[in-house]
Amino acid sequence: QVQLVESGGGLVQAGGSLRLSCVASGRTFRSYAMGWFRQAPGREREFVTTISWNSFITYYADSVKGRFTISRDNAKSTVYLQMNSLRPEDTAVYYCASRTSHSASTTRDDYDYWGQGTQVTVSS
Predict the structure, then answer these.
(1) Cβ contacts of residue 5 below 8 Å, gap of 6+?
(2) What's the rounded Cα separation, in Å, for the pair 102 and 34?
(3) pLDDT in tens, 102-112
(4) CA spacing 20 to 30 A to 71: which of 6, 7, 9, 41?
(5) Where are the alpha helices (DSSP H) in 1-124?
(6) Positions of E strands within the chain
C-alpha cells in the first residue's frame, strides 16, 4: 500500500518561504513521477508542479513559475517543494501525488496516490 505523508506547511508572511516535504512508502519511489497540487477553499484542486522519475523533466503552473522549485531525493523516497516569494493567493492545502509512470504529468487524473495534504497560509 502506497503512503504519502506531507509536512512543512504553516503560516508565513507574504514574500516569505516554505519548504514542503513528502515522504513516500509502499513501493519503489525512484521508479515513479511525482507531483504537487493545491486546493484553496471553494476551488478545485489545481496543478502546481511535477517531476519525472529521474528529475530530468519538470513542469510548473504559470502562477508559480520562477518562485517554486520541485526536487526529489530518491535515496530518501522524498519529494520537495521549495516555495519562495509567497503570495496570499498561494494559500491552500498542498497535496503530494504519485503516478504509476516514469513521466511527469500536469493532469490530476493521471495520479494514483495522494497524501493527506498540508496547509499553507500566506498573510498579507
Answers:
(1) 22, 23, 115, 116
(2) 9
(3) 999 999 999 99
(4) 41
(5) none
(6) 3-7, 10-13, 18-25, 34-39, 46-51, 58-60, 68-73, 78-83, 92-98, 113-114, 118-123
Q: Is the pLDDT at 19 greater than 90, yes or no?
A: yes
DSSP 103: S
| β-strand pairing of 10-13 with 68-73 | unpaired
Distance CA 18, CA 38 (A): 15
With b for 16 or more beta-carbon neighbours within 10 A and e for fewer, the 60-99 pattern comes to bbeebeeebbbebeeeebbbbbebeebeeebbbbbbbbbb
Q: How far apart are CA 69 and CA 51, in angstroms?
A: 10
Task: Give the model confidence (pLDDT) of 67-90 as tens digits.
Answer: 999 999 999 999 999 999 999 999
CA distance 60 to 80: 14
Band of the pLDDT at 30, cuts 50, 70, 90? confident
